[in-house]
Design goal:
Structural class: alpha/beta
Domain Isopropylmalate dehydrogenase-like: 6-356
Cofactor: Mn(2+); Mg(2+)
Protein name: Isocitrate/isopropylmalate family dehydrogenase
Helix content: 40-55%
Strand content: 15-25%
Number of strands: 12
Shape: globular
CATH superfamily of the largest domain: Isopropylmalate Dehydrogenase
Number of domains: 2
Keywords: Manganese, Metal-binding, NAD, Oxidoreductase
Organism: Ruegeria marisflavi
Distance between the termini: 22 Å
């Protein structure tokens, strides 16, 4: 088939393989029934377990497969008891972001009908915004290369014009698409600390330059500490938030909390040529192998992958099935009969994934 796409699959550590398997099965079933695209999956070893066994966290062959693939589906990675000699965690997912220049970390924050969460929404209000986290520099720039002595430690925060321009173009383009679809307000908010740090004043200046190119959209700013407050007090006000790497890392977990937990939080890391799709949660080694993990964030990340492939290749079939998969997860959540323990239910991983497959009318 002409419209055939290779997906590099990183099953990861802990509960990673358990949520990856049913996700790939559902994606394969969707593709098998689709007249306008095909998917081929290739597994790539990497992660803390692989480092423990081989001394390598991200093999060159796995990185080469990721580069050669049309998209990358990555599950949870890392184990608390497996670390590099300097004490830092094994994080091939961050290495992939750096190697493939995946500058835009996309973290949707959506509270779906029937979805348990900590907030009671006012009548007529919904939570549906996207946090875009710069993913290759900021305070993560010197990851693994910080300076440590007996008396002090230093890390370098780096913000470049080139990466920031690409990031802000991505953010405004996303806001425009959301507005055109009727899903967003056409508003982009730069989240920074420009009142204290020159680096963030530079970041904001570049944002304002890009904003001037989009007079049909609304652009504004917020300090990161104020945004943490407003995300709790009035999260329904926001559309697209864009921020530095570390700030985005922290605020995206706050966004996951609004959705009821990390088990509901999908994500993508997107560059000009490549993209990785993965759940925001960790490897949960305490329940690994027990079939208890929540697969919904992984399935929603897979839906984001289909959307991205559809947009990149102008393939309506991929976009159609991305939307179908997302709606099927939302339907299962709303019905409440196949919720996992973290969402207050009793379903296991397989039962939750099977419920999604039934909602899709898959065999």
């Amino acid at each position: 088939m002409q419209n055939a796409y290779q997906i590099a699959v990183f099953p990861g550590d802990g509960i990673g393989p358990e949520i990856t398997a049913p996700t790939v099965e559902i994606l394969q079933s969707l593709a098998d029934a689709a007249p306008d695209y095909a998917l081929h999956f290739a597994e790539a070893p990497a992660g803390a377990g692989h480092y423990r066994d081989t001394g390598t966290a991200l093999p060159a062959s796995s990185l080469a497969l990721a580069r050669a693939s049309d998209a990358i589906l990555l599950s949870a990675m890392g184990l608390p008891d497996v670390r590099y000699p300097d004490g830092t965690e094994i994080t091939p997912q961050i290495d992939l972001r750096m190697e493939l220049s995946l500058f835009a970390g996309v973290r949707p924050v959506t509270l779906r009908p029937g979805q348990p969460g900590p907030l009671t929404l006012p009548p007529g209000k919904t939570i549906d915004f996207v946090l875009i986290r710069e993913s290759t520099e900021g305070l993560f720039f010197t990851k693994g290369r910080g300076e440590v002595t007996n008396t002090e430690a230093r890390e370098t925060l780096r913000i470049t014009r080139d990466t920031s321009e690409k990031l802000f173009r991505f953010a405004f383009d996303l806001a425009a698409r959301r507005k055109a679809s009727g899903r967003g307000k056409g508003r982009v908010t730069c989240v920074d600390k420009a009142n204290v740090f020159r680096a963030f004043a530079f970041f904001r200046k570049i944002f304002e330059e890009e904003a001037a190119r989009h007079p049909d959209l609304t652009a504004d700013h917020a300090y990161v500490d104020a945004m943490a407050l407003w995300m709790v007090q009035r999260p329904w006000d926001f559309d697209v938030l864009v921020t530095e790497n570390m700030f985005g890392d922290i605020l995206s977990d706050l966004g996951a909390g609004l959705m009821g937990g990390l088990g509901m939080a999908p994500s993508a890391d997107i560059g000009l040529d490549h993209a990785v799709f993965q759940p925001c949660h960790g490897t949960a080694p305490d329940i690994a192998g027990q079939g208890l993990a929540n697969p919904f964030a992984m399935l929603l990340s897979a839906a984001m992958m289909l959307d991205w492939l559809g947009d990149k290749h102008d393939n309506d079939g991929l976009r159609r099935d991305g939307n179908r998969l997302r709606q099927a997860v939302e339907q299962v959540i709303a019905e409440g009969a196949a919720l996992t323990r973290d969402l207050g239910g009793t379903a296991g991983t397989r039962a939750a994934a099977d419920a999604v497959a039934r909602a899709l009318s898959l065999p």
